[in-house]
Design a protein that fits this description.
2 copies of one chain form a homodimer. By secondary structure, the first copy, chain A, is an alpha/beta fold. Chain A is built from 15 helices and 17 strands. β14 of chain A pairs antiparallel with β14 of chain B, so a sheet runs across the interface.
């Protein structure tokens, strides 16, 4: 079943409020096989609401609105949608009793305008709202199905869960939308796409989306309107195929953080971790310690932002820095080895680079980063060149440092 | 001037990604008197894009799209919109040179599909994208104005700021929506509101919005449709009034980062900075080094996540940890003093706390954080209790550590 969302409220268009309802409704409805095929946000104006809801009904036959059900004069959704269904508004005593009871509970009195909240389009169902005063409305007729919910996120969520979802599930089919994400890092979207080859053909009827971000490219597989068991089986098989083609660049599935993967690998091998950071300034330590329970594996780190600390705390020979520069294979290796010693850990990763915007040269442009990794007396380093502004270079460098740890620990 | 937004991408409709671009674009355009009157999200399907963009042009005459400009086969925005304008796509050598240069910088090669990114609708302007490979497109013709931007938030933001906003401003009207933000930290929204008193009356016709976040509460003043000179004068006077009432909690205006304030204060006094972090794991160092040019003031830090490193690297006496616990005034002071010594800096801040979800006790519940600050042989500490989940506690603790530095450096 397809459905459109129409979000009603001038404040959402001004941009001071981010609309989180839309995403939440889409995720929630997907579990019942209902697919949101369009989302429209309009101001609290009758003609805009009429136009958007009318077009959605005509196109798709089913619409869910949020907002515009309160007691103020801006709140005109119910009237406008009822008109589209040719349904007059009737005062409903049982809804009014709910409104009165709610006011009694908070020891206040309703005002005259609250009476409008007890009006229900003829032939429609009022969805009881135990979390606010405006009931939701479910109306079906010649134009199709319209479901109206309040815009307040908590009331929307509760009505969706308790009143709307069960009704949609009851009509609905045995088919649902299910997704599975495979996470990759260290490979650009276009190269990844080449590796995938004719994947769309191989995984059909599943679909694949590329979601690039600073931490890497996520690959989302979706199964549309298949029976749940078949959907899960096909997703699993397709994910395995993706993993095979993306190879060593895959670090997890779902919303697994790379830091969690690194910590789990170290824990399994009984190894302690440390970091020596220059251009990332603490971001790698920040990523690892974001994970609750990291303290059993992660000992700590040294942020050697100035060169004095690279020598003073990590024991990088000054002449190495003079000869090769702070951003070099030699210094990255010396930092990683120095961190193992200074922190007393088994494995240490080091990061030294040029985050920009200044500091770049012809041979070492902005975005040049050397990463070092030391384990059991052995050390190696690799150079990476990251695109982007300072913030991105740093975030990508932190992710690459974690990925270097992952690969070392997996080896 | 009115304009509609069309967001393109099946991902956004699935609900796995919250659309933050829409709100950001609306706020940003408002500064130039451009009002977003409708927002539509559609999947990556040619007919949906054509329908939504076409209807927007017909209704409003101006549309801004995000998404669908990448190199994969899902990315069809440019082709579909060009068709609406009757414009064929021409391969543009100068855009291609940009794409090649970008790949060269990161020492990679473009693949065949990247060539489509250098196609520009005839008669349109390619908006140079220095932050990614897909240029934006600005096309005007009989149907009206269409602006196409990439969906990646950073690229969208940069193109909006550097390419779109100046062009819209140049067309612009005489009355605009102008805003000024005063940033506070370390004071809850309700307490701040009490301090403000009858501020709405005092600043009319300007409006005031409270924007709470993990870094503190921003106060946004807005002038609606006033002549620019009057708007600016009123905003300045109102901001001064806010600063007076919020007092020491104000650290800046606009989008000033607290880390920048700290670095500037230290630079002015010729003092070097260091950090000793436990529960924040590197976030304070990360904040300071996010600011370009921080290396002349910020020397580095020690992430002493395990207690061994608190003793080993920072010289915190083990018996202090045993007697008072790692999260205590005594340990916070010893960490800050130890950092001054180990890092050879003038000022050091320390953070030790319980970020959760585990580790809390009756006397030191989750969210308990001790912050220490050492300057010129003197040290002091303060206890703060933060609400929220792990991520929030850590972000708030990092901000509070920076604020403690600010206050010390201002004293």
């Amino acid at each position: 079943m397809n459905l459109e969302l129409v979000t009603i409220g001038t404040e959402l268009l001004l941009g001071f409020t981010v609309d989180t309802n839309g995403a939440e409704i889409a995720r929630s409805l997907a579990a019942f096989g209902v697919r949101v095929v369009r989302r429209t946000a309009v101001p609290d104006r009758a003609e805009d609401i009429r136009d958007a809801v009318g077009a959605a009904l005509e196109r798709t036959g089913a619409v869910l609105t949020t907002g515009g059900l309160g007691p103020t004069r801006d709140d005109i959704t119910k009237k406008v949608v009822a008109d589209l269904f040719g349904a007059p508004l009737d005062f409903d005593e049982s809804v009014w009793a709910d409104v009165l009871a709610r006011y009694a509970r908070v020891q206040r009195s309703p005002v005259a305008s609250n009476r409008s909240q007890a009006e229900v389009p003829r032939g429609a169902l009022a969805l009881r709202n135990r979390w606010g005063t405006a009931p939701g409305i479910w109306i079906e007729g010649k134009p199709g199905l319209a479901i109206m919910l309040p815009g307040v996120p908590l009331e929307m969520r509760m009505l969706l869960e308790h009143e709307v979802a069960p009704r949609l599930a009851a009509r609905g089919g045995s088919s649902v939308i299910r997704s599975l994400v495979v996470r990759t890092t260290g490979i650009p979207e276009s190269t990844l796409a080449e590796r995938m080859g004719e994947i769309e053909r191989d995984i059909a009827p599943l679909t694949l989306a590329y979601l690039p971000g600073v931490e890497g490219v996520d690959l989302r597989l979706s199964a549309w309107e298949l029976p749940p068991v078949e959907a899960d089986a096909r997703l699993r098989a397709a994910a395995d195929l993706l993993r095979q083609r993306a190879g060593e660049h895959v670090y997890g599935e779902g919303n697994t953080d790379l830091a969690t993967v690194v910590l789990d690998l170290a824990r399994a091998r009984g190894l302690s971790l440390g970091v020596a950071e220059s251009c990332t300034g603490g971001l790698v330590g920040g990523r690892l310690t974001e994970i609750a329970g990291s303290s059993d594996v992660f000992a700590g780190g040294i942020v050697s932002y100035g060169n004095e600390l690279k020598s003073g705390l990590l024991g990088v020979p000054e002449k190495l820095i003079v000869a090769h520069g702070a951003v070099s294979e030699q210094v990255a290796c010396a930092m990683a080895l120095g961190a193992v010693g200074a922190l007393g850990v088994d494995v240490a990763v080091s990061v030294t680079g040029i985050a920009g915007p200044g500091g770049g040269t012809e041979t070492k442009p902005v975005g040049t980063v050397w990463l070092g990794i030391a384990l059991a007396g052995e050390v190696e380093a690799r150079r990476v060149n990251f695109a982007g502004i300072r913030r991105e270079v740093r975030a990508r460098a932190a992710q690459a440092a974690l990925d270097l740890m992952r690969r070392k620990l997996e080896a």
